[in-house]
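User: Please fill in residues for this 118-position structure.
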C-alpha cells in the first residue's frame, strides 16, 4: 500500500479500501485509519529550580502524550543531551541531584505516536 503525503496531511479519520486480487478484483472491505498530528514543541518554556532535586517544568504541548527529558553533564558549555532520563506524562519532572557543583544541561521533547519534537 502506498500513501501520499496529502493522505496524511490533515489529522482526522480516513478509510482504507481493501481491493481483491484479479481476476475477480473489486472492493472486499475497508478499515478505518486514524491520522494524528505531531505534538507541538515545548519551545523555550523550560524552567527549573533547585531544592533536593532539580525541578523542571515547561508549557504543556498540544498533542503530546508524554515528554522525553534529556540530561547531560558538562563543565564548560552545553553538550548534546543524548540519553533520555525520564518519560513523564505531565509537563514537569524532578531530577534527583547527582553531585552538587556540577553543571547539568536539559532538553525536553514532546512525544506522541508520530514521534518526538524538541
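Assistant: Residues filled in for all 118 positions:
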Amino acid at each position: 500500500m502506498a500513501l501520499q503525503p496529502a493522505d496524511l496531511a490533515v489529522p482526522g479519520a480516513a478509510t482504507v479500501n481493501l481491493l481483491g486480487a484479479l481476476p475477480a478484483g473489486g472492493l472486499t472491505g475497508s478499515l478505518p485509519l486514524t491520522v494524528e498530528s505531531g505534538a507541538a514543541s515545548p519551545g523555550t518554556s523550560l524552567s527549573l529550580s533547585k531544592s533536593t532535586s532539580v525541578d523542571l517544568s515547561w508549557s504543556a504541548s498540544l498533542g503530546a502524550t508524554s515528554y522525553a527529558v534529556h540530561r547531560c553533564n558538562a563543565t564548560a558549555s552545553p553538550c548534546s543531551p543524548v540519553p533520555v532520563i525520564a518519560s513523564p506524562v505531565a509537563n514537569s519532572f524532578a531530577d534527583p541531584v547527582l553531585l552538587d557543583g556540577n553543571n547539568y544541561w536539559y532538553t525536553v521533547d514532546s512525544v506522541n505516536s508520530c514521534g518526538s519534537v524538541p
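For context: The mean pLDDT is 83.
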